[in-house]
User: Which sequence fits this backbone?
């Protein structure tokens, strides 16, 4: 698989994991656990968006 294909697959996996975490957060009755899962999902989603933007050349990593 090409680097581009591996990169897309990695981003897709990250986004899928973020959706799974949000779904798990909705299913839990524990407010602390819900918040923890939501934060983890947000970080993962943000990371995937950032990596996608960097790969496309839209933004540059901070130095």
Assistant:
């Amino acid at each position: 698989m090409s680097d581009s294909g591996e990169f897309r697959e990695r981003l897709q996996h990250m986004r899928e994991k973020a959706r799974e975490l949000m779904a798990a957060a909705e299913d839990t009755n524990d407010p602390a656990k819900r918040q923890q899962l939501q934060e983890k999902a947000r970080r993962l989603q943000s990371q995937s968006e950032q990596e996608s933007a960097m790969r496309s050349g839209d933004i540059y990593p901070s130095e």
About this structure: The chain has a mean pLDDT of 87. Helices lie at 3-27, 31-56.
